């Protein structure tokens, strides 16, 4: 397979908390869960360090013969060891991340999806297969209503966002709640996993939720149109479309959201001719 990648931070003055990389037979995309400004995470390194460190370790671990979930669990444990002496790993806001991991050989592609980043498989002659873990969205639907009722960018919205993040933390990595890569290696066993034959996939896309929102939050594109944009114009063009839509609704009145812009990352792979 051949790959193209693009990423764009939400703000130029803050680190990009997304991470994506492609190896010879594996690819990963992680979307770090950022803490609102003024919120202590208990980690001196920050969310970008966490997602980038975990992503790099995971890509390396995928070269082993372990399962995808096993590779993720080992990588989470490895990151724990790297900062357990300097950071409070039991803090409710300690950094966390979504994960998409792929690994392929000459015949199949294995996948793992944990939390709300999106994997889209382009199936020849069929509708795209969209794989995401929506448990956080289900849990957060009621919790986010006070935040969504306020204009994005206002002090009131910023406070409501902090309240939402604090309430959501009570459901993170708990039965009946939702699961992310965090400090508990057992979260890897909660991921959605599967396998698909390479002959059954013409192309695939890994998207952080900052890049998928054109289709799944804004409703401005179908998944078919999203794949067509990636095939014809590339990942950067899709992110540009997202930014244009966000700028048209800067206060979040049409599409309520935690922040106007989010880090946006796309990895697009297609079968070699």
UniProtKB/TrEMBL annotation:
Residues 14-234 form the PPM-type phosphatase domain. It holds the Pfam family PP2C_2. InterPro entries: PPM-type-like_dom_sf, PPM-type_phosphatase-like_dom. It comes from the Bacteria. This is Integrase. It comes from Streptomonospora arabica.
């Amino acid at each position: 397979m051949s790959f193209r990648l693009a990423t764009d931070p939400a703000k130029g003055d803050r680190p990009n908390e997304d991470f994506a990389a492609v190896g010879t037979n594996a690819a990963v995309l992680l979307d770090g869960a950022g803490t609102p400004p003024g919120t202590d995470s208990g980690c001196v390194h920050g969310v970008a360090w966490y997602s980038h460190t975990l992503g790099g370790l995971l890509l390396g671990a995928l070269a082993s013969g372990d399962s995808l979930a096993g590779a993720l669990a080992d990588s989470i444990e490895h990151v724990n060891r790297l900062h357990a002496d300097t950071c409070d790993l039991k803090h409710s806001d300690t950094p966390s991340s979504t994960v998409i991991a792929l690994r392929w050989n000459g015949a199949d592609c294995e996948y793992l999806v944990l939390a709300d980043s999106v994997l889209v498989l382009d199936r020849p002659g069929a509708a795209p297969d969209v794989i995401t873990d929506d448990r956080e969205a289900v849990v957060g639907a009621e919790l986010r209503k006070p935040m969504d009722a306020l204009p994005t960018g206002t002090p009131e919205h910023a406070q409501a966002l902090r309240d939402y993040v604090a309430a959501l933390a009570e459901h993170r990595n708990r039965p009946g709640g939702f699961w992310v890569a965090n400090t508990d290696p057992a979260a890897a066993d909660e991921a959605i996993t599967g396998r698909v034959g390479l002959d059954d996939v013409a192309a695939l896309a890994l998207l952080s939720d900052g890049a998928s929102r054109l289709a799944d939050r804004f409703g401005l594109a179908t998944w078919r149109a999203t794949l067509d944009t990636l095939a014809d114009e590339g990942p950067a063009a899709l992110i540009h479309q997202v930014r244009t839509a966000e700028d048209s609704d800067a206060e979040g009145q049409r599409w309520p959201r935690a922040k106007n812009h989010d880090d946006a990352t796309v990895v697009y792979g297609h079968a070699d001719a």
